[in-house]
Amino acid sequence: MDSDKRKVHVYENGSDQPEEQHEAYRGRTKMKRNLLKTGDLSLTLKYPTDWDTKTYSCSVYSRWKMIQMKTQVELKVRVDEVEVNPGLESVQLPFKTTLHLPEEVKVEWMDKNNRKVHMYENGSDQPEEQHQVYRDRTQMNEDLLKTGDLSLTLKYPTDGDNRTYTCTVYSREGNILLKKQVELKVRVPQVEVDSGVESVQLPFNTTLHLPEDAKVEWRDRYYYYNNRKVHVYENGSDQPEEQDQFYRDRTKMNEDLLKTGDLSLTMKYPTDGDNSTYTCTVYSREGNILLKKQVELKVRVPQVEVDSGVESVQLPFNTTLHLPEDAKVEWKISSYTKVHVYENGSDQPEKQHQAYRDRTKMNEDLLKTGDLSLTLKYPTDGDNYTYTCTVYSREGNILLKKQVELKVRVPQVEVESGVESVQLPFNTTFHLPEDAKVEWKISSYTKVHVYENGSDQPEEQHQVYKDRTKMNEDLLKTGDLSLTLKYPTDGDNSTYTCTVYSRERNILLKKQVELKFTVCRVEVEEGAESVQLPFKTTQNLPEDVKVEWWEVSSYHKLHVYENGSDQPEEQHQDYRDRTKMNEDLLKTGDLSLTLKHPTERNSGEYRCGVYRKNIWIRGKTVQLKVKGRVQVQDQTGDIRNRSSSIDPTPLMADQSV
Questions:
Q1: Which domains does the chain have, with CATH numbers?
Q2: How far apart are CA 95 and CA 392, in angstroms?
Q3: Which is the most buried residue in 506, 518, 594, 606, by most CB within 10 A?
Q4: DSSP state, 487?
Q5: DSSP 173
Q6: Which is nearest to 206 in space by CA: 313, 146, 282, 144?
Q7: Is there a contact between 177 and 99 (Cβ–Cβ < 8 Å)?
């Protein structure tokens, strides 16, 4: 048997049983005669390939199907590997044999996708049978059957040819005579540059004599639009009308390239959007491929990392290039979102996106100094983007381009279930005016806490947070703007943003904190009289609220409390007479639920929601695990209970041997 549980070879009743073996091994296995007498149970496997790399088990059975002997052997078939650099005219996949081959044999090269690479039969090549990917690209030696040289030559190899190739030799009857595998690996050279360089060169030099009427074509490998034309040279000159518009005015090749053999491509203003594998192909006048090479381009984008809460961050860009006085400098995060625009010698705030108004700044005399860095105030994780700075001439031509990636780290506060409160920290040494306003939010509309005119403003906060938040006294003097949140639950998981405004509503400071609450977990053994799903919140909840417990997976209602009393008619029948909540639950804030007679079927996730006028104002999730109990009977007839989740010992261990 192989490790896939397929029968490789069966010997029974004094002979082989080929009808029992798996088809993958038909005609490929053999065992010795008199194997039971000699004790030599070795298996011979013909024409091994890497597909046969497995663990094989040999088992010897008695007449009564009892195993008398068992052994395992691991087979590892090594595949020859051929590695070459791109740009070569051809590569050879070697296969030589000293075996005498009859004249009527068939030789077939296949790739790992079962596509025919080359076929030799009836004394000649059969090009009509090969896959179109390999048409006019393969060649085998003359007199291959006489010389035993079955090697395959593959022209113009690229990384698209990287795979395992199998050569199989068949007799006239279709039996396999010989088999070999070769793995081809075409190394693609990589060119790495930093974003912001003026240009990058994709190198390609050849000593091959190229005809004057040859055509040279560079293409990329793009996800959506495969093989876009990057640059085309034909009839002795560039053909810009043929290239994709993405590369217009950005590429250049050397003069006399066919004479010098320097087919390198220069690409201006590279960004990470240019990261791709580029292929250069040289064609004859008839359209036949003469040469092919690939180069991988990797444009590194520098990353700037800062913690949320800093006053500002700088996206650096310095150049020594001489910039004209009428140049335009533009920072963007997309084709449409302008972050900052400098033109005609001054900033143009009316052109920038509103998300960046009053938040950006560039240095004076930036065109003279070459310092095109951008300062971004009050950064948050909402500013995490790749920023692109482009410098244009008066005519709109690109002079320079650079990218910078911004990463604003948001500190995370983790709390365990059951804590009475959690603090979201924010301390600053920045001098804050006495009339500053401090606002904690979780979205544009949901205010968590507001401090203004020297005191808290509870009427402005969302009702979800009523009576649950607190800030320190003298916070503007001490700089401690931390927020304390009482009775936190998983419903409070969010990113909280604290913003400090001046009297004129200008932002002075901004920080984010992510709150992550661990879901409450309760475990109980089956057979317990009851279990409590805990939930405590603020006291003196409004009398008109509705409290509802339900099972998350099925949405079955466990318990409903409304209008000052339980509503048993609303609960699911599985929970009738099995649930209970405390008296005066709205006054005490104890919304815990008692579930009687829990069983293993009750394991799962439960949620409690508190609503006022159909608006959710409180909530909590509880994960319940009811550990089942197993009855075990020993030989004396005693029955003992044990928890299946505590003791994993097999039941057989309780029996006497």
A1: 11-75 (no CATH), 80-186 (2.60.40.10), 190-300 (2.60.40.10), 303-406 (2.60.40.10), 412-517 (2.60.40.10), 519-627 (2.60.40.10)
A2: 58
A3: 606
A4: S
A5: T
A6: 282
A7: yes
Strand-pair category, 303-307 with 398-409? parallel
Q: Are 549 and 606 spatial neighbours (Cβ–Cβ below 8 Å)? A: yes
Contact 268, 66 (CB under 8 A): no
Q: Minimal CA–CA distance to 540: which of 602, 467, 473?
A: 467
Give the whole-angstrom CA distance, residue 252 versus residue 530. 79
**Closest of 390, 370, 375 to residue 330, by C-alpha:** 390
Beta carbons within 10 angstroms of residue 301's beta carbon = 17
- Give pLDDT, residue 647: 37
Nearest to residue 93, comparing CAs of 76, 110, 115? 110
The gap from C-alpha 113 to its chain's centroid, in whole angstroms, comes to 26
pLDDT digits (tens, 9 = 90+) for 355-408: 999 999 999 999 999 999 999 999 999 899 999 999 999 999 899 999 999 999
Task: Tell me the two tokens of residue 585.
Answer: 């639950």
| 234-268 tens-digit pLDDT | 999 999 999 998 899 999 999 999 999 999 999 99
**Could you give the CA distance from residue 330 to residue 347 in angstroms, rounded to a whole number?**
10
Residues 6+ away with beta carbon under 8 Å from 377 = 311, 312, 358, 359, 360, 361, 507
Q: Is the pLDDT of residue 602 over 70?
A: yes
In this predicted model, what pLDDT tens digit does every residue of 260-276 receive, in sequence order?
999 999 999 999 989 99
- Residues in a beta bridge with 595: 531, 579
Q: Are strands 398-409 and 520-525 parallel, antiparallel or unpaired?
A: unpaired
Give the residue with greater pLDDT, 653 vs 277.
277
User: What is the distance between the alpha carbons of residues 73 and 85, in angstroms, rounded to a whole number?
Assistant: 38
Residue 140 has pLDDT above 70, yes or no: yes
Phi-psi region of 378 (alpha: psi -120 to 50; beta: other; left: phi over 0): left
Res 576 pLDDT > 60: yes
Owner of token pair 């700037």: 304
Cα separations (Å) of 558 from 551, 568, 575, 609, 644? 7, 9, 6, 12, 26
Give the span between the Cα atoms of 177 and 108, in whole angstroms. 12
Looking at the whole model, is its pTM more than 0.90?
Answer: no
Report the alpha-carbon distance of residue 36 to residue 69 in Å, rounded.
Answer: 12
Computed over its alpha carbons, how large is the radius of gyration of the chain? Answer: 38
Q: What is the mean pLDDT of the chain?
A: 90
CB 181 within 8 A of CB 49: yes
Q: How many CB atoms lie within 10 A of CB 633?
A: 12
What does the alpha-carbon distance between residue 290 and residue 304 come to, in Å, rounded to a whole number? Answer: 46
Amino acid type, 279: T
* pLDDT given for residue 128 in this prediction: 94
- Residue 535 has, within 13 A of its CA and on its CB side, a CA count of 27
Q: Looking at residues 428-442, what average pLDDT do you find?
A: 93
Is beta strand 138-140 parallel, antiparallel or unpaired with respect to 152-155? antiparallel
Q: Read off the pLDDT of residues 448-505 as tens digits, 9 standing for 90 and up.
A: 999 999 999 999 999 999 999 999 999 999 999 999 999 999 889 999 999 999 999 9
Query: At 340, which amino acid appears?
Result: H
